Amino acid sequence: MTVPTIPLHDGTSIPQLGFGVYQVPPPETAATVAQALEVGYRHIDTAQMYGNEAGVGEAIRQSGLDRDDLYVTTKLNNTFHLPDDARREIDASLDRLGLEQVDLFLIHWPLPTRYDGDFVQTWRALIEAQEAGKTRSIGVSNFQPAHLDRIVEETGVVPVVNQVEVHPFFANEDVRAANKKHGVLTEAWSPIAQGKVVDDDTIGEIASLVGRTPAQVTLRWHVQRGDIVFPKSMSAERMRQNFEIFDFELEPAHMSAIDELDNGESGRMGPNPDTFDWIP
């Protein structure tokens, strides 16, 4: 099965489906990613905060795959927003991954109540990293519309993606609209609502009608909306199921029924980026 690639505004492209390693224990990361690569995933999403970049790098080295066949994303930890810290830790990520360049580097959280609210300086550090060839593309994660507007207005450099919480119960439409305005693609984290889609009657009914699992239906909903998704699973069977979402389509009525599950802000499961200020 072939995963579609989506063009980014900087002239590169990104696989629409990836494999996320959030909460994969570091000692198990290499084996888990190796299994994902065997299934067919070629887009791996990690982060400094996850503590498992080294395991991702080990799996890549052991895979024997050409570097050009892989898409690797990592993210700057909240601890390193000051420019000198960011520069140092971007290099540290490359060392842990064993790569000369990643495909995409993100600011993990804007932290508007930390660092005097100056996440623009952090964005400038990523711009420098891209100019130095340490990353092909740069983007952000968990940026609200005002955060996105600010970095674009102050630097003139538009992120290629904004990775934010999106799932049927929290469609995050204001952020998706802001992304679209700037030509930024939306990456959906927690795309199956931490597994809660399994228990939803509407999604379950659609899954029965199309002969798929609730997770597959939900991931297909994302894909048809244009989201980039990277579900995480340590089960080989679920990895395969999550990968098999490009050989069927949801009808418009099914898409609309899932759209109607959106609960707005009350459906949010993770922290609110306007107030989240955790520094590990």
UniProtKB/TrEMBL annotation:
Q: Where is the NADP-dependent oxidoreductase domain?
A: 23-262
Q: Where is this region: Disordered?
A: 261-280
Q: What is this protein called in UniProt?
A: Aldo/keto reductase
By its UniProt entry, which Gene3D superfamilies does this protein fall under? NADP-dependent oxidoreductase domain
Keywords of this entry: NADP, Oxidoreductase
One Pfam family this sequence matches: Aldo_ket_red
Q: Which family does it belong to?
A: Belongs to the aldo/keto reductase family.
The signal peptide here is none
